[in-house]
């Protein structure tokens, strides 16, 4: 009997009935997350309903030296929730209670399986909302958001998950239940945990900050003949001291796809559109709107539309929000990339992407959070054409190189997961990665929490990195001399 | 080679330590003045080879905060690392070396019409000190604290490893965020060499609204009963007034950037000041003024902040005979956090605890972010400081929500109290320290739980 089988036999004792999945057909429904080309059937799946159950499962994993992976809604785009065939997949889908809504203290306490949007829906009628708004917010879980430090279209002004989480109860890889709180003095372990992609433990209860809904919101769309003019407008808006809540850009190919998919009716002939949102006190939004409109015209916008109603606002957003799925209409297959560049490098990086398209004969549709330089190039290919998938993969990787060369990052919001672990050394030195590994070893010395994610072949905890203490073993043994 | 020679051999400027170099009473042997991350690393390697303990310092403004180090051989003074190597205005990002003062940084950034949206309450604070203590001022309500604005760091570990995390883009989730871990770590995990921050455009306009509670504490015949216990016969107009007005202000769609209170002494008027920034600031300030006038006296709009704005409280000057602290006294400063709902009451707490402990207290801080500071006169008798801290903490921690941290206290007083209070995850913190600094060579014993 394998360790996994021995462990599986003990799971029923610590979990409610029906919470252990071993049926091969059901197991396969968990074989991938949103990054569907990485697949692995989990050894066993558990569906705990409470923190104590998560802790009990994690302790059993420790006793049997079996790895475990957390999974929320499985919308992750970097294979973070890719299961281990030799491990346990801990799914939070039965931990979906909103435990407390505390308006006077501007906070809500939720279980990790609660969806992002459910929080906003629970407090909207009282004039509040939960600010981070990933496009996947109807489905993705708060636990997943915490693990990925997810952002959203509005994070330019409001920040990411880490700026909106006040406390988290976690199950450590040792199986202890520990509270990490922003109120506590001491190291900011909460900050370190958020964005750690399930490698430091499992969040079982999360306290989020609620934000006051803004008094006024103005959504507008500006159409430009080309992407350069759009980029100029973005720079000028930021330089003018305006921080829009959102400022999103789409290029001609992305517009074409959105048009085919959802008939968003963006202005004909647009080589680029900017979708912008300004929010805040009425008086401030009015001032900002005047500035933004003038800047867009000066930068060459040939049409500006302003949403006059909730429906018109939704219509402007529809094209942008459907963009990923929409490219399915114009291409049999595609890769969603996620990279970041300093805003001022945008024109150079976009020109670089153009050159890659020519060099490889692969089309790239560009959709991006222009305000913070977060690119989502959609690399289009036909998997029926031999070699095209490989070329698309190559283009996708070269785009990340461009981002790093220009001082950016290999991921702005989708995380490293399994997908980008091999790119980490392009951004970080071995010393940088070893130092991050110190945090990992403090939380998870045995490396059982989501192993194989984020870091390329990490050192074992206790293995001494480059800097050596004392004499080299060969010198000590009299076999060599050091000069 | 002895340690001194080894330090000299690194080529880093080194001098013998003098009287002014003490760290909370502990005198180091040498002061090293590195000019780059590589030089810090060279110093740390010597420390590792010769088993020397090191403490980093920036402006030295808060070096006496925290417990004295259990060992201190080398003071690593970052004052020479005072350059701003990178400010790309178009990206709203700046990289500054750890020894740059926040004022100097602000001057550089203002030339480009930008700012680091942090108010630093102690003049002369360096970027490194700001991060290591995690201190923040009024606008934390709108922009968060250093952790929220920091996007990248370079650190030097105890063994001389130079490591960076984050980068120079605002949006970045590649790898663990070491910057968060180092922020507020009081130099116990490594030495911060440089930091990269996200910036904000300087706001188009600023306006303040101030108002007062004239008689914050009024004697009444109504006994104050708390949880069945008659505590006092003093009613607290302040708590009542603040409770009536502040939620309306912080939750207002007029979006103030900060809401602060200054209450310099129990008998003095208590002042509330609200900052409004950005387009239409004056207009919004006027509307807030009307809102505040509803419950407070003398509400008025001003173009300049009140003189106390963004500074730590000054201790009241005691009128009675000075305490019997003996050994010179020194700054006594506490930080209190509570949840919004409890905050109005929290503001009263220090005065009540002060009465119980027989001390005088001054309170100043953020009503919007639920953090404030309390100062006691420097010569307060040590036993009373401890009694005050105990009273206040018992009250604040009663429902598990509030926290009281003693930021600074003279050694005599500090010995009798727990500086840090309740911490949820101390064992994990210890494990982090063990991994980063297994030989306990960086600011040993300065942090909570003896870390
Ligand atoms: C159409 C679409 C649009 C998207 N748009 C955005 C966007 O705008 N912004 C953005 O940031 N992301 C976006 N994403 C990515 C994804 O939705 C986010 O990363 C999300 O946070 C993942 O949540 P999840 O519940 O699906 O997590 P999963 O995919 O189940 O897991 C993601 C990671 O979190 C870990 N994890 C899950 N739960 C826990 C827990 N309780 N404790 C510890 N670790 C845990 C997993 O191990 C894994 O590493 C998008 C995805 C899709 C498919
Ligand atoms: C030694 C000492 C003596 C004191 N003496 C006096 C005195 O004489 N006069 C005086 O006015 N104050 C006194 N105080 C201060 C007093 O204890 C309170 O701090 C303050 O008056 C009221 O605070 P509060 O309203 O924020 O909270 P509380 O007094 O704790 O709460 C008021 C009410 O709100 C409820 N409540 C509190 N928090 C929440 C929450 N998060 N959710 C739901 N309900 C909540 C409580 O249950 C209570 O019913 C003293 C404090 C100390 C330490």
From TrEMBL, chain A:
User: Which keywords describe this protein according to UniProt?
Assistant: FAD, Flavoprotein, Oxidoreductase
Q: Which Pfam families match?
A: FAD-oxidase_C, FAD_binding_4
Query: What protein name does the entry list?
Result: FAD-binding protein
Q: Which Gene3D superfamilies match?
A: 3.30.465.10, 3.30.70.2740, Vanillyl-alcohol Oxidase, Chain A, domain 4
Q: Which cofactor does it need?
A: FAD
Origin superkingdom: Bacteria
Ranges for domain FAD-binding PCMH-type come to 38-213
Could you tell me which InterPro entries the record lists for this protein?
FAD-bd_oxidored_4_C (IPR004113), FAD-bd_PCMH (IPR016166), FAD-bd_PCMH-like_sf (IPR036318), FAD-bd_PCMH_sub2 (IPR016169), FAD-linked_Oxase-like_C (IPR016164), FAD-linked_OxidoTrans_Type4 (IPR051914), Oxid_FAD_bind_N (IPR006094), Vanillyl_alc_oxidase_C-sub2 (IPR016171)
Q: Which organism is it from?
A: Microbispora catharanthi
A GO molecular function held by the record:
oxidoreductase activity
UniProtKB/TrEMBL annotation, chain B:
- Keyword annotations from UniProtKB, A to Z: FAD, Flavoprotein
The reply to whether 4Fe-4S figures as a keyword in the UniProt entry is no
Looking at the record, the residues that make up the FAD-binding PCMH-type domain are: 23-202
- Alphabetized GO MF terms: catalytic activity; FAD binding
InterPro entries associated with the record:
FAD-bd_PCMH, FAD-bd_PCMH-like_sf, FAD-bd_PCMH_sub2, FAD-linked_Oxase-like_C, Oxid_FAD_bind_N
Give a Pfam family name: FAD_binding_4
Q: Which PANTHER family match?
A: D-LACTATE DEHYDROGENASE (PTHR11748), GLYCOLATE OXIDASE SUBUNIT GLCE (PTHR11748:SF103)
**What name does the UniProt record give this protein?**
FAD-binding protein
| Taxon lineage | Bacteria, Bacillati, Actinomycetota, Actinomycetes, Streptosporangiales
């Amino acid at each position: 009997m394998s360790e996994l089988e021995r462990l599986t036999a003990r799971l029923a004792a610590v979990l409610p009935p029906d919470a252990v999945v071993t049926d091969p057909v059901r197991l396969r429904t968990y074989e991938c997350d949103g990054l569907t080309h990485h697949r692995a059937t989990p050894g066993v799946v558990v569906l705990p309903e409470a923190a104590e159950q998560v802790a009990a499962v994690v302790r059993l994993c420790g006793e049997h030296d079996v790895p475990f992976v957390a999974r929320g809604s499985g919308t992750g785009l970097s294979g973070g929730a890719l299961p281990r065939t030799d491990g346990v997949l801990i799914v939070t889908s039965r931990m979906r209670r909103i435990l407390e809504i505390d308006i006077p203290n501007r906070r809500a306490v939720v279980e990790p399986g609660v969806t992002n949007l459910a929080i906003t829906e629970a407090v909207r009628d009282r004039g509040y909302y939960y600010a981070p708004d990933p496009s996947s917010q109807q489905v993705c879980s708060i636990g997943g958001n915490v693990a990925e430090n997810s952002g959203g279209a509005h994070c330019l002004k409001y920040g990411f998950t880490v700026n909106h989480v006040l406390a988290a109860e976690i199950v450590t890889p040792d199986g202890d239940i520990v509270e990490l709180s922003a109120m506590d003095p001491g190291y900011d372990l909460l900050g370190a945990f958020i964005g750690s992609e399930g490698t430091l433990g499992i969040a079982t209860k999360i306290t989020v900050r609620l934000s006051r809904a803004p008094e006024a919101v103005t959504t507008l769309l500006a159409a430009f003949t080309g992407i350069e003019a759009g980029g100029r407008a973005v720079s000028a808006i930021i330089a003018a001291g305006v921080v829009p809540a959102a400022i999103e850009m789409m290029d001609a190919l992305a517009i074409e796809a959105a048009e085919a998919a959802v008939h968003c009716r963006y202005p004909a002939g647009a080589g680029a559109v900017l979708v912008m949102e300004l929010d805040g006190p009425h008086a401030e939004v009015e001032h900002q709107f005047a500035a933004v409109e003038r800047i867009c015209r000066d930068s060459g916008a040939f049409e500006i539309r302003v949403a006059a109603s909730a429906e018109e606002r939704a219509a402007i957003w529809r094209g942008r929000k459907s963009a990923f799925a929409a490219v399915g209409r114009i291409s049999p297959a595609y890769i969603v990339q996620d990279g970041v560049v300093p805003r001022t490098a945008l024109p150079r990086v976009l020109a670089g992407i153009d050159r890659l398209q020519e060099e490889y004969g692969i089309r790239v549709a560009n959709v991006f959070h222009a305000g913070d330089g977060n690119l989502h190039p959609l690399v289009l290919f036909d998997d029926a054409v031999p070699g095209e998938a490989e070329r698309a993969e190559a283009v996708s990787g070269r785009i990340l190189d461009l981002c790093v060369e220009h001082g950016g990052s290999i991921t702005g919001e989708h995380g490293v997961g399994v997908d980008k672990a091999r790119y980490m050394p392009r951004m970080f030195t071995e010393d940088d990665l070893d130092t991050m590994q110190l945090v990992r070893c403090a939380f998870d010395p045995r490396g059982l929490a989501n192993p194989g994610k984020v870091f390329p072949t990490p050192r074992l905890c206790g293995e001494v990195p480059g800097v050596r203490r004392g004499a080299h073993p060969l010198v000590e043994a009299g076999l060599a001399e050091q000069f | 080679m002895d340690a001194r020679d080894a330090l000299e051999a690194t080529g880093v400027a080194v001098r013998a330590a003098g009287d002014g170099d003490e760290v909370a009473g502990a005198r180091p042997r040498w002061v090293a003045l590195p000019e780059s991350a590589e030089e810090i690393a060279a110093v740390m390697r010597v420390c590792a080879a010769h088993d020397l303990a090191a403490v980093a310092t920036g402006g030295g403004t808060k070096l006496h905060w925290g417990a004295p180090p259990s060992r201190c051989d080398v003071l690593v003074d970052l004052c020479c690392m005072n350059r701003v190597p990178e400010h790309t205005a178009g990206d709203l990002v700046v990289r500054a070396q750890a020894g740059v003062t926040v004022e100097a940084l602000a001057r550089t950034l203002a030339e480009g019409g930008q700012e680091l949206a942090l108010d630093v309450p102690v003049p002369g604070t360096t970027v490194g000190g700001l991060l290591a203590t995690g201190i923040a001022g009024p606008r934390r309500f709108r922009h968060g604290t250093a952790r929220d604005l920091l996007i990248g760091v370079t650190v030097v570990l105890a063994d001389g490893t130079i490591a960076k995390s984050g980068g120079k883009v605002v949006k970045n989730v590649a790898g663990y965020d070491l910057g968060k871990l180092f922020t507020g770590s009081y130099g116990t995990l490594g030495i911060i060499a440089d930091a990269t921050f996200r910036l904000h455009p300087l706001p188009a306009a600023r306006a303040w609204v101030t108002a007062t509670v004239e008689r914050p504490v009024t004697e009444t015949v109504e006994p104050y009963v708390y949880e069945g216990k008659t505590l006092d016969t003093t009613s607290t107009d302040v708590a009542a007034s603040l409770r009536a007005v502040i939620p309306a202000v912080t939750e207002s769609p007029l979006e103030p950037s900060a809401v602060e209170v200054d209450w310099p002494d129990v008998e003095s008027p208590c002042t509330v000041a609200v900052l409004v920034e950005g387009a239409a600031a004056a207009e919004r300030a006027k509307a807030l003024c009307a809102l505040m006038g509803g419950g407070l006296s003398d509400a008025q709009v001003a173009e300049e902040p009140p003189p106390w704005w963004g500074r730590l409280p000054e201790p009241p000057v005691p009128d009675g005979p000075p305490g019997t602290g003996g050994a010179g006294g020194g700054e006594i400063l506490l930080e209190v956090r509570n949840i919004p709902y409890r905050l109005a009451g929290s503001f009263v707490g220090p005065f009540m605890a002060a009465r119980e402990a027989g001390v005088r207290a001054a309170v100043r801080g953020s009503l919007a972010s639920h953090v404030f500071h309390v100062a006691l006169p420097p010569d307060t008798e040590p036993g009373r400081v401890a009694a005050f801290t105990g009273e206040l903490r018992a009250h604040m921690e009663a429902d598990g929500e509030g926290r009281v941290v003693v930021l600074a206290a003279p050694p005599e007083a500090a010995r009798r109290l727990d500086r840090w209070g309740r911490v949820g995850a101390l064992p994990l913190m210890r494990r982090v320290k063990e991994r980063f600094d297994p030989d306990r060579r960086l600011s040993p014993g300065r942090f909570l739980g003896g870390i």
